[in-house]
Structures are given as C-alpha cells and as structure tokens.
Amino acid sequence: MIEELFQAFEDRPAAVRARGLRKRFGEQTALAGLEMTVPKGAVYVLVGPNGAGKTTTLRALLDLTVMDGGTAEVFDLPCVERGAQARAQIGYVPDSQEFPYVELTVDALLAHHAAYYPGWDESYAAELGRKMAIDGGKRYGGLSKGEARRVQLVQALAHRPSLLLMDEPTDGLDPLAQDRFQALLADHLADTPTTVLISTHRVHEVEGLGDCLGVLRDGRLVAQVERDLLERRLVRVRAEVPEQWAASALSVPVVRRGGRGREIAWTVWSETEEAAAAFTAAGATVRQVERLNLEEATRALLAMEEAP
Predict the structure, then answer these.
(1) Which of 8, 74, 155, 179 has its CB 3.0 to 4.6 Å from that of 86, i.e. a possible disulfide?
(2) In the beta sheet, which residues pair with residue 215?
(3) How far apart are CA 169 and CA 5, in angstroms?
(4) Which burial class, exposed, middle or buried, applies to 274 when counting CB atoms under 10 A from its CB (0-12, 13-18, 19+)?
C-alpha cells in the first residue's frame, strides 16, 4: 500500500463524510465499506468505471438509496436521520433525465422546482438559462439528452447550494456545451462558495476542474489524494533494462507496469529526479520521466496492483 495515495483530509473541515458504506443489489456489490471525505470548498472528482459504485455513493448522500451499513454525513448532518436538512443544502445533477412531469414546459418545470428551494434566485436561473442556450418554451419530455442535461444544471445551481453533487454532468453534452458547462461552473464557483463532488468515468471532460481525486474500484476507494500531490508524485518512467533485470532492486513504489520486452514504461510513486535515480541505480537506462495528466493517472490507479 502507498499510504500517501489515501489522504484522510482529517485536518480540513469536511463537507461530506462516508464511513463504511455498504450496499448490495442482489448478487452485485455496489459499495464495499466505502470510506470517503470531501473537504469543504473542494472540487472533488470521483472517478471509476461504470458499475464501480459512483451513482450509489451520491444517492446515499441524498438518502435516495437505503444502505446496508455504514454512515454518511453532509456538513455534519446525518444523511438518514436529518435527510431533509441535508438535501436542502444540495444541488443535484442526476445521471438520467427521468422526471414525472414530462408534459411541463421547461419554464414551468423550473418554476415547480424553485418552489422547493427558498434560496432560489430567479434572475440567476434566467442568466444560467441564457448561458446554456435553453428554450424555456419547450416541453421537457421532448428534449434531447443534452438539452435535458442543461436544464438539470440550471436546477442544480440556481438556488446556490453549499454542495453540488453531479453525476456524469457532461453526459449528452456536445463539445460546445461542455465548454459552456466548464465556464459556467468556474464562474459559479468564483461567485458562490460551493463544495463540488463530480462523479464521472469521462475523466478527460473534467480534466481542469478538480483539486481532489477519489478513485473508486469495486465499491472501494483505491486512492483519495489532492491533485497537486498526485501531479507531483505520480510519474511514468520509460527505460531500457538489461536481460534478466532485477526489478526487485527498485527503491520506489510501483503503481503500474507497462511496455514490452526490455523497453518498459512503468508508473511509480516518486518525485521525478528520485524516480530517474532509482531506475538508474537498479541498472536501467532511463529514456524519459514524465508526469501524467488526470486521465492517465486515473487509469494507472485503477490498474494498481495493490489497493489500500
């Protein structure tokens, strides 16, 4: 285990705490004792493949799915015992566009939604609608997936919640709408103090957003780490190794092995210069040491041979 890859964030106030969350759906395990902390004010990107438990995690925070065990809190409010108070502080973008009032126009839908939130800002909702190019006169049930997603973003943001939960928020958005979403979210965060938890398997679409990363695999976090530390310490070393190379002599932790034959490309947890020195000392000829982007880092962590 690489202990630095699982930061507890105990020294920072928490917006979200999950402790030992467990959930099964029949024979399928969705969450297997999930331990997660989202620091207050962070943009936390929760990544993992489909079926890893991301949506179940968000639904647990909203008390929309009954857990088999464990606890969850939002701003120190237990999500089960004080669910209504917790949900009042949350803006939510679900992973689908299902909604019972499909015959309502978008304007009527937003008015209906606003009635549940005393903090709803009508002028801000109108501004968001313009920025996302939303046609308020359209029937919600007739919207495309991308159009419905833009409406959901307005619903989530317009009451200026303290916590945003976004489940695959760019799903269905074309490239232009994705750019609008990122700019809109950046503007929102600059103007309104907000903690954001984004769940996604499309890591490249949120590359520039997160400052904390959680990597979910088989219902457990295999990493929870600040982005700055990840970018500094997770590097890929491309090197040539001699025949019968003694990899056991390597003095830095290996996250993922790659390459062919004597040409290797290994991802390790180390500073750049330290990594180069460690491979050289072990008898390898180092060709390149490079830092990883967020998507590359996520793939390496998901493939990590030993998880916490």
Answers:
(1) 74
(2) 47, 223
(3) 26
(4) middle
- CA distance linking residue 206 with residue 54, whole number of Å: 16
Pairwise CA distance, residues 232 & 269, whole Å: 9
In angstroms and rounded to an integer, the radius of gyration of the C-alpha atoms of the chain is: 22
pTM of the predicted model over 0.85? yes
The string of pLDDT tens digits covering residues 139-193 is 998 988 888 888 999 999 999 999 999 998 888 788 888 888 888 888 999 989 8
Residue pointed to by tokens 């979200």: 16
Domains located in the chain, CATH noted: 3-227 (3.40.50.300), 229-302 (3.30.70)
Pairing of strands 234-240, 263-269: antiparallel
Identify the three-state secondary structure at position 261: coil
Residues whose CB falls within 8 Å of the CB of residue 302, separated by 6 or more in sequence, listed in order = 48, 49, 215, 217, 222
pLDDT digits (tens, 9 = 90+) for 187-229: 999 989 899 999 988 887 777 788 999 999 999 999 999 999 9
**How far apart are the C-alpha atoms of 60 and 106, rounded to whole Å?**
28
